[in-house]
Specification:
6-stranded antiparallel beta sheet; glycosyltransferase; metal ion binding; Amidophosphoribosyltransferase; purine biosynthesis
Length: 468
């Protein structure tokens, strides 16, 4: 997916920029980049590959070369960023959190206008450069950003570093968040508000869909008013978000806890304890334990010093190995227990299969599973939230194909909680992975836990609803 951080200050910004960007590292592992601006040195940029190392270790030795009171940083799961552009709008650096579905079409359109692409990523067009080229077609930065909104299918939030501060723009449907922070003599903009507390920023504003603001050290000026319609990704609260982050005023951990609490209050299963699959299942399991009135135990612990998030390697075999190696079961807490585990989602089911086998091998009497969101039925065309290339990589679609002979048949029925088709699909998943019981959260409970109107939250991956 990716996350960014930018700050403009009356004093040097490099320390805040470095740590603020690092606090977005859970959102991606492919590339990291920083850019600063100073009158003396102009724009300074650095990009590093993060696939075999962490952001901090890659950039610490680079920090001395950065100068200035304004800068932007990115953790990217896609293209190399930031891009630095010289144009009729002036010089600027840009970072994006984006997924452009119609990239090829836009690329051909721009090439036909005699434009060129210089920043190829693995031989392909760099989507941040494409966004920059769409921006410079405008007479102003705002007109250029509106041109991006007009042309792309998918989503795009961005930060632009200029010689006069930072321009922050949120995706026109608000699919990804942009949070503004403020402290004495400085403003910041980030994807994750968890970047703020240790750097002494307070949340000043959540940008609205399509809203554009200009940040200087002592001011924030609105350049474009927010649009009314919003479709913020519900998976931010389910999986992506760091527990201390807030979007639209709703804290990630609070949503996960509330979601688990509501499931626990309704669940009739008899179990000895609740456990969370680290990291994103823990908040839900704590809520479930309270709602059910049972203890919370750590029957599985994550080995945090060296293992990154498991979805990141592009190779499925390596992804499975990482998923296994980072989680260590605790036989003392498993043996002869009826265990209920909470997890964020089931995508392919690869991790679930491996985890359940280990739990039984270590003496578990029963293994129940509760999932924070409804079954994933549809691939996401709006944000890059999984490594899935097509819908058939989803375990649900594989089962639908087995049952119907066509993975696209009767999807609305399989997406409806409690329908015969839904119950059959869930029972097959449970049987396939050796689970004593399996229940998914309902869409209604998830939306209730998030606390926003359903019409403002994107639930496409669960029910196929679409807003372009």
């Amino acid at each position: 997916m990716g996350g960014f951080f930018g700050t403009v200050s009356r004093v040097g910004c490099v320390t805040d920029l470095f740590y603020g960007t690092d606090y977005n590292s859970h959102l991606g592992t492919k590339r990291g980049g920083l850019a600063t601006y100073s009158e003396e040195q102009g724009f300074i940029r650095s990009i590093h590959n993060l696939e075999s190392s962490y952001f901090r270790s890659k950039f610490e030795s680079d920090l001395d070369k950065f100068q200035g009171n304004a800068g932007i940083g990115i953790i990217s799961d896609t293209d190399a960023q930031p891009i630095v552009i010289n144009s009729h709008l002036g010089r600027f650096a840009i970072v994006t959190v984006a997924k452009i579905v119609n990239l090829k079409e836009l690329e051909e359109e721009l090439l036909s206008k005699n434009m060129h692409f210089a920043e190829l990523s693995s031989g392909n067009t760099n989507q941040t450069e494409l966004i920059a080229l769409l921006i410079i077609q405008g007479k102003t930065f705002v007109e250029g950003i509106e041109n991006v909104f007009k042309h792309i299918k998918g989503s795009c939030s961005m930060l632009l570093l200029t010689d006069d501060g930072i321009i922050a723009a949120r995706d026109r449907w608000g699919r990804t968040p942009v949070v503004i922070g403020k402290k004495e003599g400085a403003y910041a903009a980030t994807s994750e508000s968890s970047s703020f507390p240790n750097l002494d920023y307070e949340i000043e504003k959540y940008l609205g869909p399509g809203e554009v603001v200009h940040l200087r050290a002592d001011s924030m000026v609105q350049l474009r008013k927010p649009d009314e319609g919003m479709q913020i990704c519900s998976f931010l609260w389910v999986y992506y978000g760091f527990p201390t982050s807030c979007y639209e005023g709703r804290n990630v951990e609070e949503v996960r806890f509330t979601s688990g609490l509501k499931m626990g209050q309704k669940d009739t299963s008899e179990v000895d304890c609740a456990c969370g699959i680290p990291d994103s299942g823990v908040g839900m399991a704590l809520g479930y334990a309270e709602g059910k009135g049972i203890p919370y135990h750590r029957a599985i612990a994550k080995y945090t010093p060296t293992w990154p998030r498991s979805f990141t390697p592009s190779n499925q075999a390596m992804r499975s190995l990482v998923a296994k190696m980072k989680l260590i079961p605790n036989r003392a807490m498993l043996d002869d227990k009826r265990l209920l585990f909470c997890d964020d989602s089931i995508v392919r089911g690869t991790q679930l299969r491996d985890n359940v086998k280990v739990l039984y091998d270590y003496g578990a009497k029963e293994v129940h599973m509760r999932i924070a969101c409804p079954p994933l039925i549809y691939a996401c065309p709006f944000v890059g939230f999984t490594a899935s290339k097509n819908a058939l990589e989803l375990i649900t679609r594989q089962i639908i194909k087995e049952l119907e002979g066509d993975e696209n048949k009767n999807l609305d029925k399989y997406a409806t909680t409690g329908s015969p088709e839904y119950e059959k699909m869930v029972s097959i998943i449970a049987e396939r992975f050796g689970l004593t019981s399996l229940k998914f959260n309902t869409l209604e409970t998830l939306i209730e836990a998030i606390g926003l109107p359903k019409c403002q939250v994107c639930t496409h991956c669960f029910d196929g609803s679409s807003h372009f």
